[in-house]
Amino acid sequence: MKMWAGRFQKEEDKRVNDFNSSISFDMRMYKQDIAGSCAHAEMLGKCGIIPQEGVKKIHDGLQSVLNDIENGSLEFDMEAEDIHMFIEAELTARIGDAGKRLHTARSRNDQVALDIRMYLKDEINSIMPLVKELLGVLCDKASQHTNTVMPGYTHLQRAQPVTFAHHLMAYAQMFMRDIGRLEDTFDRMNELPLGSCALAGTTYPIDRFMTSELLGFKKPTSNSLDGVSDRDFCLELLSALSILMMHMSRFSEEIIAWCSWEFKFIELDDAFATGSSIMPQKKNPDIAELVRGKTGRVYGDLMNSLTMLKGISLAYNKDMQEDKEAVFDAVDTVKMCLTTFIPMIDTMKVLKDNMRNAAAKGFINATDCADYLTKKGVPFRDAYKITGELVAVCIEKNLTLETLPISDYKSKSDVFEGDIYSAISLETCVNARTSYGGPAPECTSKQIEEVREFLKK
């Protein structure tokens, strides 16, 4: 019989029970549900709402339920409506009337809101170390390649020379912002909804601040209606995870391109690549492709939740049961992607010579050629035009700016001297870009150190 069956004259149709039940996915919150119930019982006892001996029985009973779940001797009843009802029913079966007192001054509405917040707080604390581990790998990789010249791109066209360290540190900045977003989400999530009850609080003299402290929240929620109906924290986490996945997807897109014979900038370790069932020569970047593909899945979880919430009036509605599968899926997906993405990056081989050879083509030092003229007094727009004409000459003669004879330079401007070749060498182009945040080795070393300092905090 259901806990709420007193009002009803008929048994619930099994089809309704199956449709209504959430235990198949919310059973993962059993630890949080038991911890919340223990704190709630302690508060009820301290406030004189239930007898202290009842509190002891509740605590011991809940601990026995927890132990039996974790040692496998107690299986979840898939006929139960949800994890909350399952645990309460099991507790009552073990300790009798004392178990029936546990739900005093509490509703499933605030109980659910509590459990999901506690669960997601724990998940944020498991995701952030993974992102930090990725940042550490990027720092280690970048520190080996502060002098590895590669082409930087705009519009996927070779643009200007950078270093591989500079490229990796751009992603490091993204992942540091991801950590900041997760921290912000955690901070706003860290308010206790328990005590809001169904929607209007309670007439019992409860102490929500005590429960908040017991469960590690910074404070109780300030409005009972909002306490049970707020799922902004789910949306914020889903948004933060979507952005994190977008960053990994962008990185994956580059990994996929760099692995191709057309680029051949890197080679993935055999342990983090796959082959073909028919083409023996293939080495496929499947991990990167799956990360790229699973990004859409996490986006879908966010859109699912936004759409589910957009038309719900206050306070709790059953629609809100749909929050869990979406946010659980996103959390699981992100953790799975990170745990395979990190070692893939860590073990990949960087083909420095191929990067350097690609940088030597495509006239990516053309801007430096124009800057050379500008520094000798030629107006930038004139210098820009002269350099464009020189590039056209190179293309016609199948040469590069480095191999173009000085006579061709002088045919476009008498300002050119023999020092043009050192001015447009790739190493000069990179090393001279010492503006804060630039690709010069001294700059990228500072960037790496800043990320390492961030990780120490």
CATH superfamily of the largest domain: Fumarase/aspartase (Central domain)
The tally of helices reads 20
Total E-strand runs: 6
H-E order: HHHHHHHEEHEHEHHEHHEHHHHHHH
**What is the third-level CATH name, the topology of the largest domain?**
Fumarase C, Chain A, domain 2
Helical percentage: 55-70%
What structural category characterises the helix and strand content? mainly alpha
The overall pLDDT average reads 94
Radius of gyration: 31 Å
Notes on the protein architecture:
The structure is a single chain. With 457 residues, the protein is mainly α. It has 3 domains: 5-106, Fumarase C, Chain B, domain 1 (Orthogonal Bundle); 124-145 and 161-188 and 202-352, Fumarase/aspartase (Central domain) (Fumarase C, Chain A, domain 2); 358-456, Fumarase/aspartase (C-terminal domain) (Ribonucleotide Reductase Protein R1, domain 1, Orthogonal Bundle), CATH 1.10.40. 63% of the residues lie in helices and 5% in strands. It is built from 20 helices and 6 strands. It has helices spanning 14-20, 23-26, 30-46, 52-71, 83-95, 97-100, 108-143, 164-189, 208-214, 224-229, 232-259, 286-309, 322-347, 352-359, 366-374, 380-397, 406-412, 420-423, 426-431, 441-456, and strands spanning 149-154, 157-163, 191-192, 219-220, 266-267, 349-350. A two-stranded antiparallel sheet has the order 1-2. The chain has a two-stranded parallel sheet with strand order 3-4. A two-stranded antiparallel sheet has the order 5-6. It starts with 13 loop residues before the first helix and ends with a helix. The model has no long low-confidence stretch (mean pLDDT 94).
